[in-house]
Design goal:
Length: 120
């Protein structure tokens, strides 16, 4: 009976070790919008969604990914809701890393926006 117990232990440890550890501090998000409308920025992490804030038309802003969201298995995904159009779209995922920030560039047309990690 030892082989099934050993296999179960190995599989459990494998699942635990594949989940990234949370970072010690929030991850900065630098947002720059080229959109003609205000855009609401949402963060999705492993099924949890939170509002990061709004960016005015053609505006720039700095936001933060909370520490609790820095260990997303599938990476950080951003949902951008264009207020004037009432529609939104996804960009990402990016993996949070220490000593880096997310650069989120919101383009005028859906599908052209980008999110990337930039080392500080």
């Amino acid at each position: 009976m030892r082989p099934p117990v050993l296999l179960g232990t190995v599989l459990t440890l494998g699942c635990i070790l594949t989940k990234p550890l949370p970072l010690a501090q929030p991850v900065p998000v630098w947002v720059h919008s080229h959109n003609r409308s205000a855009v609401d920025v949402y963060l999705s992490c492993d099924g949890r969604t939170s509002w990061l804030g709004a960016v005015e038309q053609h505006g720039s802003d700095a936001r933060e990914v909370p520490v609790a969201h820095t260990s997303c298995v599938r990476g950080l995904n951003f949902f951008l809701l264009v207020r004037r159009a009432g529609r939104g779209y996804w960009t990402g995922p990016v993996q949070a890393t220490a000593k880096a920030h997310v650069e989120l560039v919101i383009r005028r047309y859906a599908g052209l926006s980008t999110a990337q990690m930039i080392r500080d």
